[in-house]
Amino acid sequence: MSAEPWPEGVGKRILESVDSTNAEAARVAASLRGPEWILARRQTAGRGRRGRGWTDPAGNFAATLVMHPQEPPEHLALRSFVAALALQDALIAATGRPPGFALKWPNDVLLNGGKLAGILLETIPTPGALHLAVGIGVNLRHAPAPEPGAVAPVDLMSATGVALDPEDLLNLLAPAFARWEGRLQTYGFEPLRQAFLQRAARLGQRITARTVSETHDGTFDGIDARGALILTTARGRITVPAADVFFDENEARPCS
Amino acid sequence: MTQERNDADVAFIRALAELLNENDLTELNVKREYGESDSLNVRVSRMTAPPPAPAPTYAPPPAAPAQTAPVSEAPAVERTSGDPAEHPGAVTSPMVGTAYLSPEPGADAFITVGAQVAEGQTLLIIEAMKTMNHIPAPRAGTVKRILVTDGSAVEYGAPLVIVE
């Protein structure tokens, strides 16, 4: 199944069960000699953004890549796009069905307009070094209950009929991640920015970006060189580095 | 983005108010230039007995030309290097993003004013592109000020916390 070999120098650790792969990453980061993927067959306390829960019934994918990036902190967040592009590649390779997959800023992977995966990155401060945990969850077998206003969750099995084992997905994801990471290192963010926009759902359409203190309605006009969302609103063009993005519910139709 | 400026301005004014109190001054006038046609004029003054209640005069809707009301009679205090970004103990933001003072909503804040912190200890989180960046204390010390509020937008280089 895996066309690309496992990336050289990257570790792989498979756990039957763990509280959260990002939490495990924080515990082991200082002892690792190189990048390592940590896959758990069950997460008992999966975490989403800002304390939101992330449920992981058996059969779903939960893994974290621990990295040791050397560049300035402001560049770390570009891994959001590395992860989203790589995960979409891996899912297309696994299912053989490119249509239906799309990306939602900054790093959600959608399938038929539904939320298939969540990605959460966290830096891990350790004495004398900086580690980055790239946590990825994919609804392979089960989708959680929908939340009002948010993009409805979807699972791969129901949507495509493909039963994908988490470790098989990891074997596709790890080389895809290494490939996009290599592009980022060699050519900078621009090729990733272009690729993201080609795959982005709702480009040129109305979306809503909600920050802690404000809600912006506007036209999704791309992402800037830092990866921030560009929105043209009634009050002008703004860039948003951190927000929850919502699509119009009554326009919920398959993307791409 | 205007909200980012507003939050930065609010933090700045708050820091001025603290400076006023700490040094037992009665009035502070500061003008901050953001560009040719954009500036912020702040006058913080203490009325009489009741201490804090700083009354900031808030000037600019960004993009509009500087219509800064001439508040000053005589720039009473020339201790204008109260810009917290210039403070030797300032920890500044390494990126543009949203600041969070606690690990998740409802949880205790990472730090409080007066707390001792160790080098490398997380002071706050700045989120950008769904990446939670833990901002570590660059040195051990005491938290003197926290210059951002939870959920506020921060610019590159904005002062976040003062650790001495």
Automatic annotation (TrEMBL), chain A:
Transmembrane segments: none
Domain of life: Bacteria
Keywords, ordered alphabetically: Biotin, Ligase
Catalytic activity, as annotated: biotin + L-lysyl-[protein] + ATP = N(6)-biotinyl-L-lysyl-[protein] + AMP + diphosphate + H(+)
Enzyme nomenclature, EC number: 6.3.4.15
Enzyme class per UniProt: ligase
Domain spans labelled BPL/LPL catalytic: 8-185
GO molecular-function term, one example from the UniProt record: biotin--[biotin carboxyl-carrier protein] ligase activity
Family matches, as Gene3D superfamilies: 2.30.30.100, Bira Bifunctional Protein, Domain 2
GO cellular component: cytoplasm
InterPro entries attached to this UniProt entry: aa-tRNA-synth_II/BPL/LPL, Biotin_CoA_COase_ligase, BPL_C, BPL_LPL_catalytic
Naturally occurring in which organism (per UniProt): Rhabdonatronobacter sediminivivens
CDD domains (UniProt xref): BPL
Upper classification of the organism: Bacteria, Pseudomonadati, Pseudomonadota, Alphaproteobacteria, Rhodobacterales
Protein name (Swiss-Prot/TrEMBL): biotin--[biotin carboxyl-carrier protein] ligase
Automatic annotation (TrEMBL), chain B:
One Pfam family it belongs to: Biotin_lipoyl
Ranges for region Disordered: 34-98
Compositional bias (Pro residues): 49-64
InterPro entries per record: AcCoA_biotinCC, Biotin_BS, Biotin_Carboxyl_Carrier/Decarb, Biotin_lipoyl, Single_hybrid_motif
CDD domains: biotinyl_domain (cd06850)
The keyword Lipid metabolism appears for this protein: yes
Keyword Lipid biosynthesis assigned: yes
PROSITE patterns given in the database record: BIOTIN, BIOTINYL_LIPOYL
Any one GO BP annotation for this protein: fatty acid biosynthetic process
Protein role: This protein is a component of the acetyl coenzyme A carboxylase complex; first, biotin carboxylase catalyzes the carboxylation of the carrier protein and then the transcarboxylase transfers the carboxyl group to form malonyl-CoA.
UniProt protein name: Biotin carboxyl carrier protein of acetyl-CoA carboxylase
Organism of this sequence: Rhabdonatronobacter sediminivivens
Gene behind the chain: accB
